[in-house]
Design a protein that fits this description.
The chain is about 55% helix and about 15% strand. By secondary structure, it is α+β, with helices and mostly antiparallel strands. A three-stranded antiparallel β-sheet has the order 1-3-2. The termini are far apart.
Length: about 110
């Protein structure tokens, strides 16, 4: 995922706006993990099997730029960084839960 900022004008369609914000698999899975609470980078990387460090970093930066997650750096050696959802990010909970429920339903149908 590239580190692109949101356009100054968002699409007229709200579904398209949501897709613009949550446009890839890693973004959704990061949000899923952060719904459980604050996580460190290593915890996220371990949970998201198959994601590279570079891709995870890029996705986290983009979500931070969009105001969906918060990054807190502790002044320690080595540095400790934690990620959590912002108030805006928490509003995505019903979206992620709906996706989970639909996925469970779909798995029973095939």
């Amino acid at each position: 995922m590239t580190n692109k900022k949101l356009p100054t004008e968002l699409p007229a369609c709200p579904v398209e706006t949501t897709l613009l914000l949550l446009s890839n698999k890693w973004t959704i899975l990061i949000l899923r993990d952060l719904l459980d609470g604050t996580k460190r980078f290593g915890e996220l990387k371990k949970s998201l099997s198959g994601v590279s460090q570079k891709v995870l970093t890029a996705n986290l930066r983009t979500l931070e730029e969009k105001g969906i997650i918060h990054r807190k750096v502790y002044p320690e050696v080595p540095p400790r960084v934690e990620y959590s959802l912002t108030d805006l990010g928490i509003t995505l909970k019903p979206v992620i839960e709906s996706m989970q429920k639909w996925g469970e339903y779909y798995k029973t149908r095939i």
